[in-house]
Write a structure and sequence with these properties.
The chain is α/β, with parallel strands linked by helices. The protein has two domains: about 200 residues, 2-Layer Sandwich (Endonuclease, Chain A), CATH 3.30.870; about 180 residues, Endonuclease Chain A (Endonuclease, Chain A), CATH 3.30.870.10. The chain has ten helices and 20 strands. The strands form three sheets. Strands 7, 11, 12, 13, 14, 16, 17, 18, 19 and 20 form a ten-stranded mixed sheet that branches. Strands 3, 4, 5, 6, 8, 9, 10 and 15 form an eight-stranded mixed sheet that branches. β8 and β9 form a beta hairpin. The relative contact order is 0.11.
């Protein structure tokens, strides 16, 4: 299920979101609802649990209420001083918005960046921005010339006489409805260095003439392109030395010409490149002399594959980044996007396992080859794998 424009007589454009609530026979034409896996408790202990360890979740397999419960807890926590959040797409009856309004009523400073140019959701976002503003939330209506697309929360909490950051960095929107069908990663962290970077993204959005120095994240339009190109170049240099060199990329769209040319260069140098791309792919796949070492598959199933993951072998010291940004010129140069590292080895293991399951999919994945035939991967020589079902089973067995 994706978001595609269609045209009907009379001059109206529609998109697939219009059909999400289309009535259907629940027995024959709908999937059995997935029971989300438990996350943080809703009893007010969220901050203590995040302090004890970073938490990584993957929706819709995990329960998105971890976000709404966190915000609800922050709204009534006497030690919370400030909440900052990006709102790109918001659910119709949003508990996220309700928590932010409640936080203001409890004398918290709340800043919400509402992107009024979120495609298909412009009218809804205008409505929510007015609701928030009327309630006393400081609303920032995007950035002139840039669309704000990052997925961040910054909570400032007073602890032992000092302000401490609790942060969310993710690949998807704070939307209870789409979180049931969009596959996205969500990191909750008490890492103060990462938290300062997140806080400074909001500072940049408010005052774009300022250029904060980000220590641990890459931010479009400032540093994302250079960071990604630099990581690819390190793999090229390793391959040229005769060392092992690998790239594993998962994204929605791959159309930026500079990125594609750099991937061709990586292939020519001997870097082994694997790419999972759901939608647009302008890279010419499996072509002799151009992309010999590049394999690409597309995965479309009952949940929308929405996460962006960039993995680099890096001489055996693997680098793994999650991101709100696709490999598109608009994401790298004309939006505020954030790419962030996964420092926890168990989290990296989880993400890699998920991507390997997707790479092994032989029921819903298709090979993107030079002929653009989009042939379904044959499963005659190995056990069938429908990755979205296999991922749920894997996460269900894996302890938090």
């Amino acid at each position: 299920m994706g978001r595609y424009d269609t045209y009907t007589p009379g001059g109206r454009y529609h998109n697939s979101k219009d059909l999400m609530k289309f009535p259907a026979d629940s027995g024959r034409y709908t999937y059995k609802p997935l029971v989300p896996l438990p996350t943080l408790p809703s009893d007010g202990g969220a901050f203590a649990q995040i302090r004890s360890a970073d938490r990584l979740y993957y929706y819709p397999y995990h329960d998105f209420r971890v976000i709404t419960n966190l915000l609800a807890s922050a709204a009534i926590d006497s030690q919370v001083r400030e909440i900052r959040i990006n709102l790109y797409r918001v659910a119709k009856n949003s508990r996220v918005v309700a928590a932010l309004i409640n936080a203001v009523r409890n004398n918290k400073k709340v800043i919400a960046v509402v992107e009024l140019r979120a495609r298909f959701d412009e009218l809804a976002n205008i409505h929510w921005s007015k609701e928030l503003s009327d309630a006393g939330v400081e609303v920032i209506y995007g950035v002139p010339g840039l669309k704000v697309h990052c997925k961040l929360i910054s909570i400032v909490r007073r602890e032992e006489g000092k302000d401490k950051f609790y942060s969310h960095l993710g690949t998807g929107n704070f939307n209870e409805s789409t979180a049931r069908i969009y596959c996205d990663f969500s990191l909750l962290t008490n890492n103060q260095d990462l938290g300062l970077d997140v806080y400074n993204v909001f500072e940049f959005i408010q005052r774009t003439r300022r250029r904060p120095v980000f220590q641990h994240i890459a931010v479009s339009p400032l540093t994302n392109r250079a960071a990604l190109l630099g990581a690819i170049d390190r793999e090229i240099e390793a391959a040229q030395r005769g060392d092992q060199a690998e790239l594993f990329i998962k994204c929605n769209n791959l159309v930026d010409s500079q990125m594609i040319e750099r991937l061709y260069s990586a292939s020519a140098a001997g870097v082994q490149v694997r790419i999972i791309v759901r939608s647009m792919c302008s890279l010419v796949c499996e072509t002799a002399g151009l992309s010999n070492n590049i394999q690409v598959i597309s995965l479309v199933d009952k949940f929308l594959e929405h996460a962006r993951v960039y993995i680099f072998h890096n001489g055996g010291e693997e680098i793994m980044w999650l991101s709100s940004a696709d490999l598109m010129t608009r994401n790298l140069d004309h939006r505020v996007e954030v790419t962030f590292p996964l420092a926890n080895s168990k989290h990296r293991e989880t993400v890699r396992k998920i991507l390997e399951l997707q790479w092994s999919d032989n029921q819903k994945a298709r090979v993107m080859d030079a002929k653009q035939s989009n042939t379904r991967i044959a499963n005659s020589d190995r056990k069938g794998c429908r990755s979205q079902d296999a991922i749920y089973r894997y996460l269900k067995k894996r302890p938090q």
